[in-house]
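Chapter review: from sequence to fold.
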Amino acid sequence: MAAHYQIEGSTSAAISASVEGGIRGGALAPGAALPAVRALAGELAVSPATVAKAYQELRQRGLVVTAGRHGTRVCPRPPVATRRAGLLPPPLPGVRDLSAGQPDPRLLPPLGPHLAALAAEIGPPAGYATAAVVPELAAVARERLAADGVPAAEITVTGGALDGIERLLAAHLRPGDAVAVEDPGWANLLDLVAALGLRAIGVPVDDEGPTAPGVRAALAAGARALIVTSRAQNPTGAAVSADRADALRALLAGRSDLLLIEDDHAAELARVPLHPLAGATTAWAFVRSVSKPYGPDLRLAVLAGDEATVARVAGRARVGAGWVSTVLQRLVLALWRDPATADLVRRAGESYERRRDGLADALAAHGLAAHGRTGINVWVPVPDETVVVTALRDAGWSVAPGTLNRIAAGPGVRITVSLLDEADLAPLAADLARAVRPTAPFGFTA
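The token string follows.
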């Protein structure tokens, strides 16, 4: 814990508010250690039970994590806006940023022409009573999902994949429930699970998706929900194969006590067939976002599922945000219907595939294993994330440390290929090989 910040309070609510204030102001940085329960109780002249309750409240809100002998620490990305975030230094000059996980802006469809056409044909403004899922969008979404083997009789839309997953978890689970998530997995999802006060159970992932033994162990440990990335898994690029889908469907068949959520965020970019698990359990949902193929600013995802699950999500939306903008829905519909956009998305998927495969081949030439079957990321297991990330930064590359993506999985780094050109692949692989196996000691730079 930062020596200059003193936690205060005589009640559990006051103590948790004091810790939150320290996080919000930047005095308690991500990963900072908090005092042991008994030590803080002595400092504040309160009972250990009071401090324990404060820490429990902070854990349920996803602000802190407790890890056995490592004590209680501030989460790596606590769900609270901080002044510190605005003080982060800009990227180092000349460093190529391969850490963001964003699609290549050069391969995103232009929105201007579609917005202009939409403005000319949209008609009178929609009111509160008429705003909902645009019927034409729902019809096209059903066709696209059915073509991939996803039953979509019941459908709604949400403000992106993570918004849909949050609504699903909030509608089915309560704080303290366990959620089976991929390990390594999507950092934002791990943060969301913590912020909802849920308990994450890591499921190992290989190139064919979550392993059957890992899912079986999570179910035995009491998981109430299972979240599976269908394709382009973040960060490993895994995609659920036909054999893995068969094994998981057999394992999940008929489960009435488990919510199954499938995330197909890459959709058309994935370049491999979809093997859905939809319908394996009584309660299920399939979420497909448009952000990766069509643009991160398009905050829309289609959510299909069983009748009760979709009704819960739509009902919660009605009493909250209300609906996803019908203007946005019509824009997405126009993009789906445009042959030129479909061709651009196809070419984008091919481009990502060349860059992923090219980087994996270049790394293999240096004796390094890499994972990136689909999507825009390559995951490289490394012995020490800090050493590799620092050495690559000094060589002019910024990559993401895997620690934010991991629960119990081994260390690694995530490299987003979207800003790489094919000429960059060999130099990056050589620099990464030197970072993993330095020929001479090197010091950390400031």
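Two observations follow directly from the output. Residues 384 and 411 are 7 Å apart (CA to CA). The mean pLDDT is 91.
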